[in-house]
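Why do we care about 3D structure at all? Because function follows from shape, and shape follows, mostly, from sequence. That is the central idea of this module. The next example makes it concrete: a single protein chain, its amino acid sequence, and then its structure expressed as tokens.
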Amino acid sequence: MSTTPPPSANTGTSTALNTNASTGTQNHVSNAFDTTFGMPAGIKLDQFDGSDWATWSGILEAILMLHEVEDLLRFIDAPTNITKEQWGSLQRRTKAYLHLYVKPDVYSLIASNTNLPTFKDKWDKLRDTYGGASGSTTVFNLWRQLTQV
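And the structure:
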């Protein structure tokens, strides 16, 4: 995907929630900076409307893996051998994917760049809201069960 060879391995850390940056992470992010993002042929990703988080998020995560930027799901700050400009460019491009592939009413939840400045912040907010037992779909289904009693 990259037209330039990966940089030499550096060790270092990045501010992360639960993990340190590895050399592989640094190389992935560095390679991704040179990548032109695009939808893989034959893949369809509908706009996320708040339903079926597991399927939608799985497809988007796979796309991020193909472009070697899945580490943006884990890190807030750039790994040590990535410039602020490269990290900022990757942040802007991946946040643009969210803007394009999330319906406006759902996107309004994560639109603030002040409260949710990084892709990871926005992704975590979507996951916390729509994924798992506390997701809005689950809450809605529980509400329906209560009102039908």
